[in-house]
Amino acid sequence: MIYREKIKGKLAIGQELLYLSMQDVIDTGITVDEIIDLTEKAMIAYSTKKAEMPAKIGLHPQPDSLMHAMPAYLPEEMACGIKWGSNFPTNRERFPELTPTNCQIIYNDHESGLPLAFLDATWITEVRTPAVTLVAAKYLANRDATTFGMFGCGIQGKAHVKMIEHVLPKLETIYVFDVFEKAMDALIEQCQPHVNAKIVKASSYEQVAKSCEVIASAIPIHHHPHPMVKTEWISKGQTLITCDCHSVYEDGVYKKADIYTVDSEEQHRLLETYGYYPWGLPTIYAETGLVAAGDKPGRTSSEQLIVSNNVGMAVEDIIIARKVFDHALEREIGLKLPLWNKTR
Ligand SMILES: NC(=O)c1ccc[n+]([C@@H]2O[C@H](COP(=O)([O-])OP(=O)(O)OC[C@H]3O[C@@H](n4cnc5c(N)ncnc54)[C@H](O)[C@@H]3O)[C@@H](O)[C@H]2O)c1
């Protein structure tokens, strides 16, 4: 109730809501370190059953497009709301002025259910997704890795490359690969000033697969995957972290992995029923959040081949939405909009 009273001092709950544009969200000043910490907290809360989060349901208005409804409630954080997130890969060709991934959050008062804020979540998604990869890398990768690979040089590729040194501080070389040369050039131009490691444009999937100790991937998810990375290119000791399901690696890679983790077992079982894993889901060792919680060991030997497949969870968005909302109220950022236009 103390938290609610604090909100009521700044916002008339039930009569108005706070509208935050993407720029407002960024202007709250939430830091990358806060985002990584909150993301880890959310993954642990989910996997230790301290959060309510049903598997996301979706619509698919265009081929290979998705729109996901993602509600979550984290009681300990008093954070409650829903993200409505979309990925339309063909926006790049059909609507060049629009990005493929676009998301909004309705952030709710967990005491009354009323909306407190409507905020852009496109940037939140952009940064919390690599934060999940970072949490996975923290517990599953060889932390002294000197090489990192990135498949896909779009929004996610860039955000991953900018953030990865937070958990892999000894990186010397980052290999990036994309089917579009221009995307690789743009990533290098935008990211090189922010990272210490040298970013190298790879010439093939094979070069990245064979050169990197830790590899992340963020390419479009196709309803039926056509993996490009061959099983024999992948070796013991590597850590492969995907936020694009099984889009990149042949099924044999998952079969030979010593450990396979997912962010939400329920979520991935549901995706399997949608046909995203035509060769079946590999044996799940644990949820990534359970490893972060210390309930299951992470990497125990530098020789293990580890794959972590994280599709994104609403708990991550909603825990960050609370911090953004708190900062916005404190710093008087955003636009207050009326909720009702007459007293009922
Ligand atoms: N797991 C999550 O929480 C989460 C969150 C956001 C996005 N995603 C997923 O990440 C992926 C990328 O999202 P984005 O916003 O960066 O999209 P984007 O369109 O900005 O970037 C995708 C990049 O992949 C490249 N690409 C396309 N096909 C490729 C291929 N076969 N091999 C290599 N590169 C290829 C494109 O040229 C583009 O540069 C999508 O599948 C999206 O659904 C996952």
UniProtKB/TrEMBL annotation:
Gene3D superfamilies: NAD(P)-binding Rossmann-like Domain, ornithine cyclodeaminase, domain 1. GO terms for cellular component: cytoplasm. It comes from Brevibacillus fluminis. This is Ornithine cyclodeaminase family protein. It comes from the Bacteria. PANTHER family: KETIMINE REDUCTASE MU-CRYSTALLIN. It holds the Pfam family OCD_Mu_crystall. Coiled coil: none annotated. InterPro entries: NAD(P)-bd_dom_sf, ODC_Mu_crystall, ODC_N.
